[in-house]
Write a structure and sequence with these properties.
By secondary structure, this protein is an alpha+beta fold. The protein is 39% helix and 26% strand. The protein is built from seven helices and 14 strands.
Amino acid sequence: MKEKNKRKENMFDDHIEDLFDENIEQTGTIAKTIKKAQRKTIIRNVIISITVSSILMLVFFVLLPVIKQYQEDKAISDSGLYDRFTFTNPNVHITGSQTISNGLFNGIITFEQYKIINGKPIDWGEKKIEYSLFGRAHSFGGDHSPIQLEQVKNGRSYDRYTKQLIMEYYHPDVKYDSMINDFPRLKKMPDTLAAELAISFNDKLSPQQVRDLIPKGVSLQWYWVDIYDKLDDETMPIQANGFNFYGFEHRNDVPSEELFIKWLKTSASHESENYYDKETKQVYKYIKGKNKEIKTEQIKILGAVISGTPENLIKVKNIPQVRTGVLGAVTNNY
């Protein structure tokens, strides 16, 4: 009987051991399954992350040039260089823009400037605009004032980039204590040179009257327009690179004043309230007066830019309507 009971106990123990062995095997299988699932999840997440990142990077680098081009075009438009430049810078022209990347999200737009003297372009420095994908465009800060030689009595102003003389004008309604007169200097200049000359008139003239005044051999480059309801400083000449200075280039294909009127009308209709648009609206309002629109006979010319050799430029000295002449940029005549 005892042996029988002992056999039963042994059988029970063997059964318990089999259960433990089976549980251990099942636990090991479950652990392996969990680890395998975890590895699959990690691999799947890595693949998804790489795929999403690749798509985002691709979209970013595809859209980045488009966004930068949009911001570049907007910067040029906001600067008004192509819109107002020739109407506010006497005998100064600009080339097409060139862009230099200044980091991933910034850029610098450069415009070369030049003057036309006796049919030849000469360097007049450059203009730069910096823009960002996330901000407004702006010009470079710092000092942009012309060079003035303090050690020279009654010294003239020079362009800070080209070191050339800056033209100055004299309003016909103002009596000045003294005026620059560069006609004696023209007599001393050799004809191997060519120059631009700012001529101021004694009276307000029509564009056609100005065209009729210019002698043969002299190139008419630019008209200085009367836009002054009042003058800020009636004792000083008006520099050709100053603010609130308007006019238009001379063209042979169309009457230049018509283009000027069209530009003023378009600019005055802008809804923008930036400084330049506000100023242009004031100019348009002053010239228009009580009329609904500006008529060509309302465009009055106070002075002009002419160019040529010294021998030809000196001819305008004897024109009764010419008050004085002031030299600007000078170049070799070849």
